[in-house]
Specification:
2 domains, homodimer, 3-stranded antiparallel sheet, 400 residues, Aspartate Aminotransferase, domain 2, 14 strands, alpha/beta, Aspartate Aminotransferase, domain 1, 14 helices
Amino acid sequence: MSVKYRYSSKVDRLQSSAVRDSLKMALGRESISLAGDLPAEELLPLDAVKEAAGRVFRSGNGALQYDLTEGYLPLREQLCGRLAAKGMTIDPDDMILTGGSRPAIDLIVRALTEPGSVVLVENPTCLTSLQVFHLNGLQVIPVESDKDGMMMEDAERLIRRHKPALVYVVPNFGNPTARVWTAQRRRGLVECCRRHGVLIVEDDPYGELKFDAKARFPTLFSIEGQVSGGCVLYTSTFSKSVAPALQTGWVMGDRNVIRMITKAKQAADPEPGTLDQRILDQLLRHFPLDIHLRKIGKLYRQRMQHMQTLLREQELSGVSWIEPQGGMFLWLELPDGLDAEALLRCAVMKGVTFVPGSPFYALEPKRNTARLNFTSTSRDQMTVGIARLADAISEFTARS
Amino acid sequence: MSVKYRYSSKVDRLQSSAVRDSLKMALGRESISLAGDLPAEELLPLDAVKEAAGRVFRSGNGALQYDLTEGYLPLREQLCGRLAAKGMTIDPDDMILTGGSRPAIDLIVRALTEPGSVVLVENPTCLTSLQVFHLNGLQVIPVESDKDGMMMEDAERLIRRHKPALVYVVPNFGNPTARVWTAQRRRGLVECCRRHGVLIVEDDPYGELKFDAKARFPTLFSIEGQVSGGCVLYTSTFSKSVAPALQTGWVMGDRNVIRMITKAKQAADPEPGTLDQRILDQLLRHFPLDIHLRKIGKLYRQRMQHMQTLLREQELSGVSWIEPQGGMFLWLELPDGLDAEALLRCAVMKGVTFVPGSPFYALEPKRNTARLNFTSTSRDQMTVGIARLADAISEFTARS
């Protein structure tokens, strides 16, 4: 008898990520990718990482051992220092380091929900977080949202109705829309969730990628003010600000919640190695991260502006977007009736990729939307890429 | 209204690991740990890792980017070469790299089971794997086992009765018993599972840590012979053979199963950084790993023999063990009626820790059992540690 493999129904139902599919479709072609979510490679601080690694190796064999589930303590301490400077007072014990941003969301969900629990999300919202929610069997319900964030009336209505386990938000330059929540909406959601005793997961991977270094966007975590007994769990990562390869993110909030997340992590990955964390710790001691972030912000703004200029020059009727203030993405609204998944197949033929918007919607996708990445292509590539994209769009609009 | 945190019932029910508890109890004391599962720190190949990292950094900024979910291809290719030399013919596409051994088990379970699915395990079996099973809501059923592995009659009876999703085994120097399955039992289980169409997860983290370099222990994977449509998923790690900090393990088997595991990993951690994998890849190109493994085997055998000698010298009546042929642990049977958890509390007072055996049993623990680690203490520490342990045991046996 041959083995009949049985798969988890939750995993079986997961759609293969459209981001990855479009990347694969373009493999082996002379294709320009506006589909990815990679940081600009030329700004990755290789020398600083190399020097930091050198210091770690000089510290002896202990650097190659296992470490605590909670993560390397000196890095947690340093991180607390950085966060304090941003008005977030936190103790290393209120924090757990994770293998990046997505594993952080996964651990939060595993610790704080049951299959069938409800999570409220912005509409649209981060595709990879949606996949984490589906992997864990959650019921995902989108809250009506506009360019300023979730609409508070709808949020309150859905909280009353569903008593969600979590409300998941990305208030700064979220993937895919790059929307920035207004201060009013931030305060509104914190107050609403406090009133109903509901926990917010504030996911902030892009917060440091702002185009105006002086701009200040208060985190929901700092608006809440209270760590112990508070209604906000905050999570972020060094993947976008330093380097993806150093695989380090964190979650912070009420100590009992962090303890439960630690318990979930202990079961899944009891004694992680922490070479990445040690390298990051050494790097942060010597590397001027804030200057580096200003450099990143400046380059990304230039690229975003170049992309906007190129799109405007194409004079594509029915195509619109809101200018991002940070992050990595430009969110396009395409002409009514244009299905971005069909457009992608055409674009691939012409040598450019992007991510269609549908999979970012938990329900009822707006099919005439698309996410363009502007961080990882050079000026020249982008010029060619947008021309090809415009060409594909025109082909569709000419038809209708 | 203050937030009432709600926790996942599965995580809430997880016991905090006894290994970690005993480690914590001993913190801050002049304590000798026989509780851990750390490799001998003096043999960690720091220089080789440092040189490998140097080569990775010289390859350019791309080393700091994201990589494929399946893991760094050149490492998968090299690994296939190593495995072929051991009679396991495998293609890089039949394999996924993971962040170590435990995350591998977690992904397998997420991809191939539902909450409530049955997994059969040896009795006793690896504590951290039990925690992964509980985290994922599995029903864990132990198969009667002796020093040679699972008893085939009971395995067959339970397979018929429960139609398990998985049979989980550690045939080489398993944690905690260090038992080595006989060739007959290995063949027996493969045949039985093939007959019933049931998937075996062969977890082999310790297989390379054998005391007799010439000893050959055929893997269930090679006994099965068939990768596509086969009944064995094999998983192992570089954590014990090279270094824990390089956090790299792998799973191999039928390509469709690997694809489903990849899908689960995509959802949880879509685009991992792979600095660790790149370092490991470079290391394996230049470092004589097999010579290194012989060195490890030799040191561990010396330490194991020293531990045995010390235990024998203490002439503890009612204490017995089976001499390990590899791995990191000595599994003690204590006098009838002696509860190892009570013994641990006494031992901590005397300045030594170990892991009580109960949590390694899925059901009905044998309380008079204990796991001693012999890999990470020096000769002198071990001498003192075993004397203290004997002292604690004598105190208990004197009382009865």
